[in-house]
Amino acid sequence: MLDGARGGADTALGQLPKLEPCRPLARSDSRERILDAAERLFADQGVAATSLREIGQAAQANPGSIYFHWKTKAELVRDVFRRRLEPLDAERVRRLDAAERAWAPEPVPLEDVLSALVGPMLWIASGPDRGGPGFVRLLGRTYNEPDRDLVRMLRRDHGATLERFRAALARALPDLPEEQLSARFHFALGALAFTLGSDSSWQLAAGRRRRAVSGQDVLRELMPFLVAGFAAPSLPDARVRASA
Predict the structure, then answer these.
(1) pLDDT (mean) for 62-77
(2) What is each CA distance from 61 to 38, 53, 68, 71, in whole angstroms?
């Protein structure tokens, strides 16, 4: 549940008026401070549990500054995700387009599809100015503690990119039933969000190694795991239902 406008009562995203189509994000120092503070608090506490007052205090901004940029909490939440997900979506699609051109008219191999999906996530996770592990942790929290209204918003704004990848995976694995493909896609996104969204999870991957673990190290070990999961034999009588 999200705060409404100035009244302060919590209002579900789905109950708010339909948001206008996405416009290019304007930039200002106060706006960026508010977005940064909201992103940190959403990752730590969850979207529903974070009030606009807390965001204003963390950003050292008065409530008027927040309402100058956003009419509702729903609009603020949307922009927190947009500023990270739009570049992520664009890079994923760019890589998938390049792979499809390179392999045409054949389907893109499974490993290349997954590389286009996973690689840009590492780029986001490895750069604090691009969101860093904190934003990936927010994605993981959203994924594991779904708010229906928030999920609907994310699907509306960013679902087309995941559908592109689902279709590419279906072409790479034509014998895998649709329900099992959806389940494995769901598992893959969860593994990706958990692995890249926490410094401690990177250290788990290190085991007893003495050297530090880099994002490339994690990616190198994660990719074979994901490929093997998707390529595993289908379950003839499975009735697994999951949505990515």
Answers:
(1) 93
(2) 12, 9, 11, 15
**C-alpha–C-alpha distance, residues 159 and 149, integer Å:** 14
Angle, CA 45 vertex, CA 43 and CA 48 arms, to 5°: 100
Are the C-beta atoms of 66 and 75 separated by less than 8 Å? no
pTM value is: 0.77
CB hemisphere CA count around 62 (13 angstroms): 1
CATH of the domain at 213: 1.10.357.10
- The mean pLDDT of 136-156, rounded to a whole number, is 83
Q: What are phi and psi of 124, to 5 degrees?
A: -65, -45
On whether both 59 and 103 belong to a single domain, the answer is: no
213-223 pLDDT per residue, tens: 566 777 778 89
The rounded distance, in Å, linking the Cα atoms of 145 and 148 is 10
State yes or no: pLDDT of 70 exceeds 90. yes
Residue with tokens 């209002």: 11
105-131 pLDDT, tens digit per residue, is 999 999 999 999 998 988 887 777 888
Average pLDDT, the chain: 82
Could you report how far apart the first and last alpha carbons of the chain are, in Å? 21
Domain termination residue (choose one: 20, 53, 71): 71
